[in-house]
Amino acid sequence: MPNRVVDFMRQFSRIFRAMESRYGRRTDKSEGSGAMSDYMSDVVDVEDRERLIEEISLLRGKVARLQERVEKLDQLAHQDALIDLPNRRGFMRELERLIARVDRHGIEGAMLFVDLDGLKIINDTLGHRAGDEALIQVAALLVKGIRHSDVVARIGGDEFGILLENSDEAAAHETAGRLIEQISACEVTHDGEALPLSVAIGVGMIDALDTAEAVMERADEAMYRRKAAA
């Protein structure tokens, strides 16, 4: 478990121990041995309305801060560290949601598996800063080349995934071809020097009752077939 999650759980436990300290605890014999229920003890006068409101307000504030912390942790767990895009975990979550919509509503959907060729050479010859710039520029081109309703994510070191909703196979292949042309036509640079990059894109259609892993595998295989045929 990540350290930040452990820290959150410890803080959460401390808050509830503080609640027990304020309100006390008792064993509710009617619910069986060990069943605990919080109640207002003589620590807080239950007749003191203003004090009760103050206590409730304090607890609500702490719960709100904890909820905000949970949301930030969730975002960190599903976002790429370099690019403002979902990471592989975030992509798989979105893919599972799209599969559910395909199954429930009978719509069509597709995944594009984007492989970036040349990144290793750039890292080895120009350094990782140049490689990072190449990834950022390619990501921006991918985002620009699709609809706002579609999803782009970085799913590996030099790999991106794209989810197309309400897209049949012909439209998915058209989008893949257009993205390849756009990236080829746009020079990716570092310190004014053109970087030797190209992309290969495979298309995997999404079926009802599919699994995220199966869709990913089909799109990956299609991408390798395209590279082999090039």
Anisotropy-based shape: globular
Quickly give the structural class. Answer: alpha+beta
Q: What percentage of amino acids are in beta strands?
A: 15-25%
Average pLDDT reading? 83
The helix tally amounts to: 7
SSE topology string: HEEHHEHHEEHEEEH
Report on the architecture of this protein.
With 230 residues, the protein is an alpha+beta fold. It is 56% helix and 17% strand. It has helices at residues 3-23, 49-78, 88-105, 119-126, 128-144, 169-185, 212-229; strands at residues 25-27, 36-38, 109-117, 151-156, 159-165, 189-190, 193-194, 198-205. The chain has a four-stranded antiparallel β-sheet with strand order 4-5-3-8, sandwiched between helices. Strands 1-2 form a two-stranded antiparallel sheet. The protein has a two-stranded antiparallel sheet with strand order 6-7. Strand 6 (189-190) and strand 7 (193-194) form a beta hairpin. Helix 1 (3-23) runs antiparallel to helix 2 (49-78). The longest helix has 30 residues, at 49-78. The two termini are 43 Å apart.
Pick out its properties:
alpha+beta, 7 helices, two-stranded antiparallel ribbon, 230 residues, 8 strands, globular, single chain
Topology:
Blueprint lengths: L2 H21 L1 E3 L8 E3 L10 H30 L9 H18 L3 E9 L1 H8 L1 H17 L6 E6 L2 E7 L3 H17 L3 E2 L2 E2 L3 E8 L6 H18 L1
Antiparallel strand pairs: 1-2, 3-5, 3-8, 4-5, 6-7
How would you briefly describe this protein structure?
This protein is of the alpha+beta class and 230 residues long.
